[in-house]
Amino acid sequence: MVQYLMDSRRVQKVLWRQLFVLDSMMSLLEGLESAQQLMAQPCTPQPEGGARSRWKALKVECRQQDEETERLLQTLQEEVQQIHVRRNKLTQLVQQLHHKKQQNEHLDEHLQKAQNALRLYNRQLIQLRLELEGVHSQLISWQQLRDELQMSISALQDVMQLKLLSFTPSELCVELRPRSFSDVLSNELEPLELLVTWSHNSHFRLQVKEGPAGLVEDCLSGRWSELSAALLEVMQRYVGQAELLSEIQTLRSSFAVDWRPAQRLLVYLKSASLVCHLEVEEGYPSSGRVQLLSVRRDGQPLETSGLKPHKTDVRLTDWLVFLCSSPLI
After folding, report:
1. Which helix or strand (DSSP H or E) is residue 164 part of?
2. How far apart are CA 280 and CA 198, in angstroms?
3. How far apart are CA 253 and CA 178, in angstroms?
């Protein structure tokens, strides 16, 4: 830009000189009446040093104008630089504003997401509070159930030796052993383990987990108000059949027997093909009797009229010993 202006200045200086010469010639021609007068008129001598002084004056004036032009150009260049600086600052400000606008948009988006999450958490909190109320109600029911079970256990402890094996919010396991039998029979008799489970609809299920076979054919169930009666029923069966079940338990160590409590039938497998069926009456051994119902070989019944031990009071053990050693079958 500066070089261009300097070249333009040189061209202007040449043009000014030419215009000065042209102006002098025009002034001279205006004072003449004809061309012959121009030819006849002698050349007026220039004052000594006039042209040179004029040239120096013009040179000084031109230099001053050059300096002024350079000063103006320098000032203009500084102003242009300031404009560029201001333009850069303005561009940076625009970029910052645009960046802040994007940040605000992101913040608005995050704020909206946070508000949505807060509403979701509030709904979940309400749901959890409702579930907590339900759990609290169940806890109260379980506490009432625990109190009822403790009362039932206290009642059973009056007549039974009882041991609490496990207790969870959904089931209870206890071990029972009667006190009314002798120490020898109590040691021979397998302990009775009862498993009580309950549901949220105030119903229970009672079953024998481990103990003498045939005490309860199927599990007992009912409402909570009937639990004490069910426990008492199982206890009475256990006490009433304890001696019979103890004898059957002892026989299992020597004979292949299967006790069917529903029919009160004892099945004795003497061999792979010979099966004996013995019926045990209610009240055995104090009042009930044991009698031989049938003997089958390969599924065919055999004559049993002469098969009977030579005793008046025949117990179940006597029958099995007799059948095992009898040569008639």
Report:
1. strand 160-168
2. 35
3. 23
Query: Using CA atoms, how far apart are residues 215 and 251, in angstroms rounded to an integer?
Result: 17
Calpha distance 266→254 (Å, rounded): 14
Q: Is the pTM of this model over 0.70?
A: no
CA–centroid distance for 277 within its chain: 60
How many Å apart are CA 252 and CA 188, to the nearest integer? 13
At residue 15, the pLDDT reads 83
pLDDT grade for 184, boundaries at 50, 70 and 90? very low
Q: What angle do CA 174, 176, 178 make, to 5 degrees?
A: 165
Long-range contacts of 301-310 (CB under 8 A, 24+ apart): 302/329
Burial annotation 87-110 (CB, 10 A radius, 16+ → b, else e):
eeeeeeeeeeeeeeeeeeeeeeee
* Confidence (pLDDT) at 44: 57
Distance CA 248, CA 286 (A): 16
Nearest-10 crossing angle of helices 50-157, 2-30: 150
> How sure is the predictor about 182, in pLDDT bands with cuts at 50, 70 and 90?
very low
Give the per-residue pLDDT at 139. Answer: 84
Candidates 278, 271, 293; CA nearest to 248 is 278
